[in-house]
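Researcher: Sequence recovery benchmark, item below. Answer with residues only.
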C-alpha cells in the first residue's frame, strides 16, 4: 500500500524539479542558437560543394589520362594537346618524365612546378591535388599518369630507342583555378581560406555587407579548424562584434572528405561564410513560468499524498489491526476472547473500507452471539476506484494546459526570419549539388559519345563498359538508332519508354510512371571524319536514382525531395514512391510559387507551415536556370520540423508539453498501480466479508497477496472457521437436546 502512494508523491516532485530545470534552461539569446547552427551548416554545405567540385575535377583529369590511347608515334606535345585542348577549365599543362623529372612539354600558362617531384608523385596510388600560387593567383595542380607503349620516341633525338622497361609513364600536371565559389542568402559572404587564414576566393550575394567586426573571423575560423584535430570535416560557428542592432554571424567548415582519405584532405582549405543577423534587444525569460508550474505540481503532489494517506492508508491500517484483533478473539478461549471482541470495530473512510468495517463489526457481534447473520444492501456508494479516477483528473488538470495551452509557439513569429532564410539558402546549395551531379553526368556521357565515332562494335562496347565502370551513377548505357531501337547496350535493362530519338543533348526523364523514375543523360553521336553522318544515333545513360538519393541528405536540413514540373517526386532523402505527390499540400504550393511566371526559371522561396506534428520550416528552389537541366522544370523542396531547431519559443513549447505528458503519465501509472495492488483487492475482500457476515460459511478465503489486504483476508478466514465451528457445535447441541427430550417423552408414556 505504501509504495504506490510514496512513488506518486516522489515522482511528481521529480517531474516538478525537471520542469524547473528544463523550462528554466530555455534562454532566448540575442542571436538564437538556431541561427548559429544554420550558418554552420551553410558553411559545411558550401565546403562539401567545393570538395565535390575538386574531387570531380581530379577524377576527370585522371580519367582523361587513363582513356588516352598513346601510340608509338605519340610525342609529348601531341599528347599534352590531346589531353588538355578540349577542356576549357585548364589554364596550363605540362608533361614530365616520371623517372628523371625532366620537363617534356608545356602548354598554356606556365605551370608552377616548384616543389613537384615527378619521381615521388608518379608512384603508386592516386596523386592528390596541390594548392599553389602563381602571379599572386591561387591555383590547383592536378596530377595524372599517362601510360606509354613499349616503343616511345625520345624527344631529344630523331630516332626511336628501345626503353629499359616494357612500358613507360609520363606525369601529366595541369593547373586550374579554384572552383567557382557561390554565396547564397542576401548579404552573405563566402570565402575560401588557405591554411594561413588568407582569403583565396570571395563571393558575396546581394548588396548588403556583413556587420563591422567581422574582420577577425577568418583568423578565428582558421584557428578553430586547426584545433579540430583528426576530425577532417569539422565545422563550427562564430560570433563577431555587434554594431547597432546587428551582429556578424559566421560559420566555418573544412574542405576535407568525411568518409575517408580524399583528394582535398591535404589542401588545408577552410570555407567561411558570414552575414549580419539582427540581434534581439529583449530576451524571453521562462524562469517564472517554470517555478509557477513546478510549484503547482509540487502542491498537487503533496495534496494527493495527504489525501491518499488519510483516506486509504490510515483506514486500511486500522482495519488491518481490527481484523487481526477479531481473529485472535475468535481463536482464543472465552475470557480472553471476550476482551478482544468487546470493542466495536471502528468504521473509517468510505467505500470498500467502510463496507469491510461494517461487515467486520457484524462478525464481531456474531462471534459474541449478540446477533445472527446480517444482509447488506446490494446498492453501494462510490468507492476507492472513483478516488483513483479523481486523482488522475486532478493531475490532468495540471497536465492538460501544459500540453495544449501554455507556452504555445506562434507559427508565424516563433521561427526567426533568419532561420527561414538559412533553410532557403541551404535548399539552394542542395539544388546546386544536384545540378552539379547531373551536369557532370551529362559531361561524362558527352565525352564517351565523342569516343564512339569510327570505332568498331567491339571498340564501342569497350568504351561504354569503361564509362560504366568509371562512373557509378549510371545503371545502363545504350545507343539508339533512328527508329528508337537499341543497337548497343551495357549494364542493366533500360527503364526507358521513349519511342523517338531526341535531338541535341541534356538530361531528361524517359518515363512518367512506374516504380523507378528513369532519369537519363543523352548526347548525339557525331559522324566519324570522312564518313556520312549517322542521323539519329544517340547515346543514352540512365542515371541510377539511388545516386541522386545519396547526395540529398544533409545534417539538420530535414527531408529533401526532387520533383518534376508537376510536383511529383523523383528522388528523396526519405522513403517514397516514384511519382507520388509531396506529403503536404503546402509543400506543393511552395514548389509552384518558385515559378514567378509561366516559362520562367523562378526563384527560391521559403515559408513556415503548420503540420500535424507542429510548425515546419520549408523551402523550395528551381533546379537550374541554364545548362543541361534548365528545360526540366524540376524543383528541390526541403522541410525541417521546427522542433529539430534550437528555437527558444519552440523549445519552451516542447519542454512544457513534455512536462505535462510526464506528469500525467506518472500520475496515471502510480494511481493505476494503487488500483491494482490496493483498490481492486479491497473490492474483492469487501464482497467476501459481506457474504461471510451474511451467513456464508462455506466459501474459503484464500489470501492472494502478502500485504495488509492479505493479512485481512487471513484474519477473515480464521473468523470464518470460528463461526463455522460454532455453527456446527450449535447444530450438534440442538440435535442432542432434541434426542434427550424425545427419550424423556417416551419414558413418561
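Model:
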Amino acid at each position: 500500500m505504501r509504495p504506490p502512494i510514496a512513488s506518486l508523491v516522489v515522482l511528481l516532485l521529480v517531474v516538478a524539479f525537471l520542469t524547473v530545470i528544463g523550462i528554466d534552461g530555455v534562454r532566448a539569446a540575442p542571436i538564437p542558437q538556431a541561427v548559429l547552427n544554420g550558418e554552420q551548416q551553410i558553411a559545411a554545405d558550401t565546403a562539401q560543394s567545393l570538395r565535390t567540385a575538386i574531387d570531380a575535377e581530379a577524377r576527370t583529369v585522371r580519367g582523361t589520362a587513363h582513356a588516352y590511347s598513346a601510340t608509338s608515334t605519340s610525342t609529348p606535345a601531341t599528347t599534352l594537346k590531346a589531353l588538355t585542348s578540349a577542356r576549357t577549365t585548364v589554364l596550363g599543362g605540362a608533361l614530365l618524365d616520371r623517372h628523371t623529372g625532366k620537363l617534356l612539354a608545356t602548354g598554356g600558362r606556365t605551370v608552377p612546378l616548384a616543389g613537384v617531384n615527378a619521381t615521388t608523385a608518379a608512384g603508386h596510388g592516386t596523386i592528390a591535388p596541390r594548392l599553389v600560387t602563381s602571379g599572386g593567383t591561387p591555383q590547383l595542380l592536378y596530377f595524372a599518369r599517362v601510360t606509354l607503349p613499349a616503343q616511345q620516341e625520345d624527344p631529344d633525338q630523331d630516332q626511336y630507342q628501345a626503353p629499359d622497361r616494357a612500358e613507360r609513364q609520363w606525369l601529366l600536371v595541369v593547373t586550374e583555378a579554384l572552383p567557382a565559389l557561390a554565396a547564397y542568402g542576401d548579404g552573405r559572404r563566402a570565402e575560401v581560406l588557405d591554411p594561413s587564414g588568407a582569403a583565396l576566393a570571395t563571393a558575396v550575394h546581394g548588396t548588403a555587407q556583413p556587420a563591422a567586426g567581422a574582420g577577425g573571423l577568418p583568423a578565428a575560423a582558421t584557428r578553430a579548424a586547426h584545433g579540430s584535430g583528426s576530425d577532417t570535416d569539422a565545422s563550427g560557428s562564430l560570433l563577431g562584434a555587434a554594431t547597432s542592432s546587428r551582429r556578424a554571424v559566421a560559420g566555418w567548415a573544412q574542405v576535407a572528405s568525411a568518409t575517408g582519405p580524399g583528394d582535398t584532405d591535404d589542401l588545408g582549405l577552410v570555407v567561411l561564410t558570414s552575414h549580419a543577423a539582427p540581434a534581439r534587444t529583449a530576451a524571453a525569460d521562462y524562469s517564472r513560468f517554470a517555478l509557477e508550474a513546478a510549484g503547482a505540481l509540487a502542491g498537487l503532489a503533496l495534496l494527493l499524498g495527504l489525501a491518499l494517506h488519510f483516506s486509504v492508508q490510515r483506514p486500511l491500517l486500522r482495519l488491518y489491526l481490527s481484523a487481526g484483533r477479531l481473529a485472535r478473539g475468535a481463536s482464543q478461549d472465552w475470557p480472553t476472547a471476550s476482551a478482544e471482541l468487546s470493542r466495536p470495530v471502528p468504521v473509517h473512510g468510505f467505500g470498500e473500507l467502510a463496507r469491510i468495517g461494517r461487515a467486520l463489526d457484524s462478525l464481531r457481534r456474531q462471534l459474541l452471539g449478540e446477533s445472527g447473520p446480517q444482509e447488506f444492501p446490494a446498492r453501494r456508494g462510490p468507492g476507492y476506484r472513483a478516488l483513483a479516477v479523481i486523482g488522475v483528473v486532478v493531475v490532468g488538470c495540471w497536465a492538460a494546459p501544459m500540453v495544449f495551452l501554455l507556452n504555445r509557439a506562434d507559427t508565424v513569429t516563433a521561427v526567426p526570419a533568419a532561420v527561414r532564410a538559412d533553410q532557403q539558402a541551404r535548399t539552394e546549395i542542395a539544388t546546386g549539388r544536384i545540378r552539379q551531379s547531373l551536369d557532370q553526368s551529362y559531361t561524362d556521357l558527352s565525352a564517351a559519345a565523342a569516343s564512339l565515332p569510327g570505332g568498331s562494335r567491339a571498340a564501342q562496347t569497350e568504351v561504354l563498359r569503361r564509362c560504366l565502370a568509371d562512373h557509378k551513377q549510371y545503371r545502363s548505357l545504350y545507343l539508339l538508332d533512328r527508329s528508337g531501337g537499341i543497337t548497343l547496350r551495357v549494364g542493366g535493362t533500360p527503364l526507358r519508354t521513349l519511342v523517338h530519338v531526341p535531338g541535341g543533348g541534356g538530361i531528361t526523364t524517359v518515363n512518367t510512371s512506374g516504380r523507378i523514375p528513369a532519369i537519363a543523360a543523352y548526347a548525339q553521336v557525331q559522324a566519324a571524319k570522312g564518313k556520312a553522318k549517322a542521323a539519329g544515333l544517340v547515346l543514352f545513360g540512365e542515371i541510377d536514382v539511388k545516386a541522386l538519393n545519396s547526395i540529398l541528405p544533409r545534417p539538420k536540413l530535414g527531408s529533401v525531395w526532387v520533383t518534376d514540373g508537376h510536383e511529383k517526386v523523383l528522388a528523396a532523402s526519405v522513403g517514397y514512391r516514384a511519382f507520388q505527390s509531396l506529403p503536404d499540400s503546402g509543400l506543393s504550393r511552395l514548389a509552384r510559387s518558385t515559378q514567378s511566371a509561366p516559362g520562367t526559371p523562378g526563384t527560391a522561396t521559403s515559408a513556415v507551415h503548420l503540420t500535424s506534428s507542429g510548425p515546419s520550416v520549408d523551402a523550395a528552389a528551381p533546379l537550374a536556370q541554364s545548362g543541361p537541366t534548365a528545360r526540366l522544370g524540376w524543383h528541390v523542396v526541403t522541410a525541417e520540423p521546427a522542433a529539430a531547431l534550437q528555437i527558444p519559443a519552440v523549445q519552451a513549447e516542447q519542454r512544457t508539453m513534455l512536462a505535462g505528458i510526464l506528469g500525467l503519465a506518472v500520475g496515471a501509472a502510480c494511481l493505476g498501480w494503487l488500483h491494482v495492488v490496493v483498490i481492486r483487492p479491497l473490492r474483492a475482500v469487501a464482497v467476501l466479508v459481506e457474504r461471510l457476515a451474511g451467513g456464508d460459511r462455506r466459501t474459503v478465503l484464500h489470501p492472494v497477496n502478502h500485504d495488509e489486504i492479505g493479512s485481512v483476508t487471513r484474519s477473515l478466514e480464521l473468523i470464518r472457521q470460528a463461526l463455522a465451528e460454532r455453527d456446527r457445535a450449535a447444530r450438534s447441541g440442538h440435535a442432542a437436546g432434541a434426542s434427550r427430550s424425545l427419550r424423556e417423552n417416551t419414558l413418561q408414556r
